[in-house]
Write a structure and sequence with these properties.
Two copies of one chain form a homodimer.
Chain A: H1 3-9, H2 23-35, E1 45-50, H3 53-59, H4 68-71, E2 74-81, H5 86-100, H6 108-118, H7 123-147, E3 151-152, H8 160-166, E4 174-183, H9 202-205, E5 206-209
Helix pairs in contact in A: 2-7
Chain lengths: ~210, ~210
């Protein structure tokens, strides 16, 4: 199926049937997020994968009681770095040089430039920048899920502070930014399932300079 | 080709060969961005598509002289709403009701809730929220481009104010947030083309709660 067909098939599933998504499909969705490009390759976010039913149920009230949290098979939480630090930036480049067998000196100037421009900025500015990168990966996860006929509902409607507390994210220097329950639609119980997908008309959405 | 294979094939192409991407492929990449889900379905961004060579060349100095701007076939600019307004929110719902044939009253409470919570927020908060939505679409555009074997380089390194001025975006209530030149790699001239793709190891990237 073409990606466009898959994206037309997908929708923000409101009611899931509780069936489990096979691990190989979840693995591919995770891998799509890991392969997502990010600014300077920093990958300033982590992916939390929750299958523990007790924990999912604990998170329902922290998600405005949206049922997909408990009915999903896997709950993905995209959690961004709370800040850019010299150590985090250096770690990314150290891993890159290890993988490529390249000399650390080859990126020393670039690393210094990144550190000098990012680290002094307010934490909020850096967190917002990191969060945006996580959204690129969210787009890729949604596309991969649709291609695999796995339902997924991107959600910003949750209490990030409570999630961070329940998941112990603060100690890891992470803050949750967006969540994505994975599962399978229960069409008979989903008010949104039968409704036409609506988007801004192409003529309004695109501005051309030819 | 599977999406994972396509995402492994793609990279942030540094040197493009100037060949034109066929219009039907560009159309599919645009459609992927238009189908991207966004918070409350607001689609708070527009896509600028630039093929005009003179304009692309004018934008090179506003992009730290990165050659892909001029060598790309199509330069996509993701431009987010500068703010959420009552009129913009109402327009989205009016279009939805027209397309679905549903009564405007059916979402009146939800629209009022959105307007009351979004419109009073600082413009910067709203712009940042809108920008994040554009990044979901960026992730989908990158995936679709890779699947179609079109090269694409997501770039934040450009002068957004100058772009907004040259493209007349301010008058449209838009601010450019990220750009994506599309084209074809010139492997012989691209220092990055032969280097191994490096990502955070899965064991560090994923945090599981089973």
């Amino acid at each position: 199926m073409s990606i466009i067909e898959s994206l037309n098939w997908r929708y923000a599933t409101k009611k899931m049937n509780g069936n489990a998504v096979p691990q190989d499909k979840v693995d591919q969705i995770i891998e799509a997020t890991r392969l997502a490009p990010t600014s300077s390759g920093l990958q300033p976010f982590r992916l939390i994968v929750i299958t523990n039913q007790e924990l999912k149920e604990k998170l329902v009230p922290a998600s405005f009681n949206q049922a997909q949290i408990a009915d999903s098979s896997h709950l993905l939480v995209f959690a961004a770095w709370d800040n850019y630090t010299e150590e985090r930036i250096n770690n990314v480049f150290a891993n890159m040089h290890k993988e490529r067998g390249t000399p650390p000196e080859s990126t020393a100037d670039y690393q210094k430039m990144l550190i000098n421009s990012y680290v002094p900025r307010p934490e909020e500015v850096n967190f917002n920048h990191a969060a945006r990168q996580a959204y690129i990966a969210l787009g890729m996860a949604l596309t991969e899920a649709a291609e695999l006929k796995v339902d997924a509902t991107p959600m910003e409607g949750f209490d990030a502070d409570q999630f961070d507390e329940f998941l112990g994210l603060r100690a890891k220097g992470l803050k949750s930014v967006v969540i994505l329950p994975l599962g399978y639609r229960d069409e008979s119980g989903d008010w949104l399932a039968g409704l036409k997908k609506v988007r801004t008309p192409l003529s309004e959405f695109v501005i051309e300079f030819n």
